[in-house]
Amino acid sequence: MLSLVRKTPILGALMAQVVAMPLVAAVTALLSGMVDQTPLIAFALFLQGAIAAVICRLFGLASWWLLIAFLFPLAMAGTMFVGNLPAWPFGIAFLLLAFVFSNTTRGRVPLYLTNAATEQTLADLVRERGARHFIDLGSGLGGVVRKVAERVEGVEALGVETAPGPFLVSWLKSRLSGHGEIRRQNLFLTDLSKADVVYAFLSPTPMPALYERARAMMKPGSLFVSNSFAVPDVTPSEIWELDDRRKTRLYLYEMGEGSSPTSAKSEV
Ligand SMILES: C[S@@+](CC[C@H](N)C(=O)[O-])C[C@H]1O[C@@H](n2cnc3c(N)ncnc32)[C@H](O)[C@@H]1O
């Protein structure tokens, strides 16, 4: 069960609230004769959140789940006590979130975007290597794909994305601009065998499995680049620290024997 909870943390967070409920009910029942109703309700909400957060911790969930678990009962009570709130904004917010982040709970990879400086560096890298095929695994809004396609003559730039919102937006932008191609495809099912440069900006979770897949499928002389997340226990061929505000780190992994990039980045 622990592995299921760690794979799908939202299940663990829900379970934590359910387990906390009878404990809170028992404690508040004991206190009900001694404490006024309003402070008792406030205490019950606090206790519910605190116990749920502790359970999330025992499940080994990431720290933001502890915060969510703690705030959840307070937020629920808040919306109930504010009174007469229409239900539709919550429905729309839910749909919007599902549209953009529907794959996040399973894959643990949210949407955040490569910045302009990194896009430019990647385009230069692809050009300098003379790459013909570039893939962005989890291409988000498709900015990297369009930039590479626009700046590097003759390159086939492909992005694969599963979240419906980002896929639709990026697909449309690519079609309208004529730069790059976006497919609705799971990055773990993408054929990497033709790619000269594969780029990923994901999270620590998928890196080991993704690197194994890259190593098995990518041809010698090709390059796997990960933005910010190194592959555990694998020494990168190079690490580039860019001169942007967030000091972006690109981890470069050469596949087999091959050329190495020559750009003048500050290497660490
Ligand atoms: C951090 S964003 C990076 C977006 C884009 N590569 C960029 O750098 O601007 C990661 C993207 O990967 C997508 N993603 C997560 N898991 C995926 C999967 N299994 N297959 C395809 N896309 C996935 C997410 O929906 C998200 O849009």
From TrEMBL:
Q: Where, by residue number, does the polypeptide cross the bilayer?
A: 12-34, 40-59
What domain of life does the native source organism fall in? Bacteria
Q: Which InterPro entries match?
A: FAM173A/B, SAM-dependent_MTases_sf
Q: Gene3D superfamilies recorded for this chain?
A: Vaccinia Virus protein VP39
Answer yes or no on keyword Lyase: no
List the PANTHER family hit by this protein, alphabetically: FI06469P, METHYLTRANSFERASE DOMAIN-CONTAINING PROTEIN
Name recorded for this polypeptide:
Class I SAM-dependent methyltransferase
Q: Which organism is it from?
A: Peteryoungia desertarenae
